[in-house]
Design goal:
Elements: E1 7-16, E2 19-29, E3 34-38, H1 45-53, E4 60-65, E5 68-69, H2 75-81, E6 82-85, H3 97-102, H4 114-124, H5 140-154, E7 165-169, H6 177-192, E8 196-200, H7 204-210, E9 213-218, E10 221-226, H8 228-231, H9 234-241, E11 243-249, E12 256-262, H10 267-272, E13 282-283
Parallel strand pairs: 3-8, 3-9, 6-7, 7-8
Antiparallel strand pairs: 1-2, 1-4, 4-5, 9-10, 11-12, 12-13
Helix pairs in contact: 4-5
Length: 286
């Protein structure tokens, strides 16, 4: 990375009792990059995000934002510059989608630009037509797009004078393929505007296509990080995810295309492993 890290974790650890969930994590996140975190279930990805955003206090190590310890920041000041999209968002009241997005401006004292910014964010997330809908009437994918618009509004669409960060926990999990790509194109556009983007993903191909850096986690540890072509190799994928992997060129993008199947696949698995959606293996979204 050329730019200094906006969000920096050093020797970060987190335990529940004697059980380590994150172990000695060193990670820097700079403006202008999309850092995708990958790993099997239980690898510590979401726990790492909660440590980076201050929701969990680390058992060891430290997190700094813009050079200052995270604990030293006033909550409002930090919220203006760093937005977090959790894996699940619970809204107990009958807010409309537009009202939810507008909540993203609540840390900001100057709200003159709230209405136009809300509209722009909803348009960019392809959910402006949902502005008047009560949130509980939306589908899971529609809710996810609304919540994404909310965090974009919170950091002022990356247009503020101070650098900002966006932390996203599985932001495409409920989205159809077209909206998955649209959401990650938007994440890359935020990075191009100078925002530091941290995103947890499960789809290896989406990560390969949109991330500028890949972080692999296993058993609470960061086991590798680097450029997608350096990290997403058959050997590394096999080691971390316990699958057989094949990596080739994506004919549509020129980037990586990753195919996987279980190590213990039967004959039927082997017959289907190169077919998208096949029962024995999967060509993940390109």
């Amino acid at each position: 990375m050329n730019a200094p890290a906006l969000l920096q974790a050093n020797a970060l650890g987190y335990r529940v009792g004697r059980i380590p969930l994150v172990v000695d994590a060193d990670l820097g996140l700079s403006g202008g990059e999309v850092v995708a975190v990958l790993g099997p279930n239980g690898a510590g990805k979401s726990t790492l995000l909660k440590l980076l955003c201050g929701l969990f206090a680390p058992s060891s190590g430290m997190v700094r934002f813009d050079g200052c310890p995270l604990a030293a920041w006033l909550r409002r000041e930090l919220a203006v510059r760093r937005a977090v999209l959790p894996q699940h968002s619970v809204v107990p009241f009958d807010f409309t989608a537009g009202e939810i997005v507008a909540l993203g401006r609540s840390p900001h004292r100057d709200i003159r630009w709230q209405r136009p910014m809300v509209l722009r964010a909803m348009e960019r997330c392809e959910c402006a037509h949902l502005a008047g809908r009560v949130l509980r009437t939306l589908s899971g994918g529609e809710m996810q797009r609304v919540q994404l618009a909310r965090v974009l509004v919170q950091i002022g669409l990356g247009e503020g004078s101070a650098p900002s960060a966006l932390l996203l926990d599985e932001p495409v999990s409920s989205l159809d393929p077209a909206h998955q790509h649209a959401a990650l194109v938007l994440a890359r556009e935020m990075a191009a505007a100078g925002v530091a983007v941290f995103v947890i993903l499960h789809d290896l191909n989406l990560a390969a296509q949109y991330a500028s850096r890949i972080v692999l986690m296993k058993s609470g540890r960061i086991v590798a990080q680097g450029l997608p072509e350096e990290i997403l190799t058959p050997g590394m994928i096999s080691s971390v995810f316990d699958v057989q992997a094949h990596v080739s060129a994506n004919p549509l993008t020129g980037g990586l295309a990753i195919f996987v199947k279980p190590r213990s696949g039967n004959a039927q698995d082997g017959a289907n492993h190169s077919q998208p959606g096949g029962s024995g293996g999967r060509a993940q979204h390109a």
